[in-house]
Design a protein that fits this description.
single chain, about 350 residues, alpha+beta, 6-stranded mixed beta sheet, 4-stranded antiparallel beta sheet, 8 helices
């Protein structure tokens, strides 16, 4: 039985994937509003004969021959998109083909990986493998939401390694920087500016600002470089003649694999006199050993491992993982986003070559 949305009779894997992606693009799926695309994925999986699992707007399937005595590979990509920026010159929710390009919001980030990995799951789960496979289409990735992959992982069997289908031009991102956002507040005392009264909170913040802008963390990663701190927002004062009693700063911290967010938070607190609060410490850096069988197979196929500065659901995974997907990260979150249809075709072939017959236990 086919779903009411898709007519896939007689199509090959690439054609199926592209048709599904077109339908996904045409259903708005901004973070926390993924129900429509989750419904489509659930219906598609069910029509292919799989026993579908769903929690909120997260949808997953497990290979039929699951055996708890074997290692398990997770294939993951996210359903949600960012909001379209104002500079789009076309309808972001209309899938438009122009030559090899397929335009539409979420086509590159990360619809291409989403549909490619699903076709790969279909192919590999129909063949005998030395490992189990789980395919998970997850929600709320773009906002690191609590109802996304973090809520699903406890419901899954034990995972040994994961591939995350973010756009990497099909090169393995074997490390990823973590993220921590800090709210920092310097305190002063208000007074009349003309009479030189009070304690200026901006001046109180100056030493802390200098430290934040100039401090270098000692451990530098060959894949991810340095742990970085960037002051990205400052707010103080109510009017020109009132000495401000509060200066608020927002700091974007990107950690490499040598530093846990919890450690960096305490380290910063020790060096600043201002109040420091982290919005969250849960999005730490992630990496996979270069000697892992999955990475070694990538290298043997001519791929080049690298470190990624951008955050993904990897930050919430407690097991080894790497990012590997069609598309170019530079196109993500941009106006007139697109993916090449040939990139999807190549991704499916590359994934199958990489994973078919792979020994994850070696």
């Amino acid at each position: 039985m086919q779903t009411k949305h898709l007519n896939i009779t007689g199509m090959n894997e690439t054609q199926r994937a592209i048709l599904l992606l077109k339908k996904l693009i045409e259903i708005p799926s901004v973070s926390r509003e993924e129900k429509g695309v989750a419904d489509l994925m659930e219906e598609t999986m069910a029509s292919d004969g799989f026993n579908v699992n769903r929690s909120g707007n997260n949808v997953w399937v497990v290979s039929r021959d699951y055996d708890e005595n074997r290692p398990t590979l997770l294939l993951n990509a996210h359903l949600d998109t960012v909001k379209p920026v104002a500079s789009w010159t076309r309808n972001p929710f209309e899938a438009v083909e122009e030559g090899d390009r397929l335009y539409g919001l979420g086509s590159n980030d990360c619809g291409g990986g989403l549909v490619s990995l699903y076709e790969v799951f279909r192919i590999l789960s129909s063949r005998a493998q030395a490992y189990n496979i789980i395919y998970l289409a997850s929600a709320e990735e773009e906002v690191s939401g609590a109802d996304g992959i973090e809520s699903v992982l406890p419901q899954l069997p034990k995972i040994d390694v994961a591939i995350v289908g973010e756009p990497t031009s099909m090169q393995p991102a074997v490390a990823e920087k973590g993220l921590m956002v800090l709210d920092i507040t310097a305190r002063g005392r208000s007074g009349h500016a003309a009479r030189n009264e009070g304690v200026n909170a901006i001046e109180e913040a100056l030493d802390d600002l200098r430290w934040l802008c100039t401090h270098k963390f000692r451990k530098e990663s060959p894949l991810l470089g340095c742990t970085q701190m960037k002051v990205t927002m400052i707010n103080a004062g109510t009017q020109h003649n009132v000495v401000p009693d509060k200066c608020e700063m927002v700091v974007d911290v990107r950690t490499n694999e040598y530093y846990r967010n919890e450690f960096v938070l305490e380290y910063i607190k020790k060096h600043l006199k201002s109040e420091v609060k982290a919005r969250s410490v849960r999005l730490s850096s992630s990496h996979i050993d270069l000697e892992h069988p999955l990475v070694k197979r990538c290298v043997a196929m001519g791929m080049k491992p690298y470190g990624s500065p951008t955050l993904s659901d990897q930050a919430l995974m407690t097991f080894p993982s790497l990012k590997l997907g069609p598309g170019d990260s530079a196109r993500s979150h941009s106006a007139d986003e697109f993916i090449m249809q040939s990139e999807i075709e190549n991704a499916i072939k590359t994934y199958v070559s990489l994973l078919d017959g792979l020994d994850l236990a070696s």
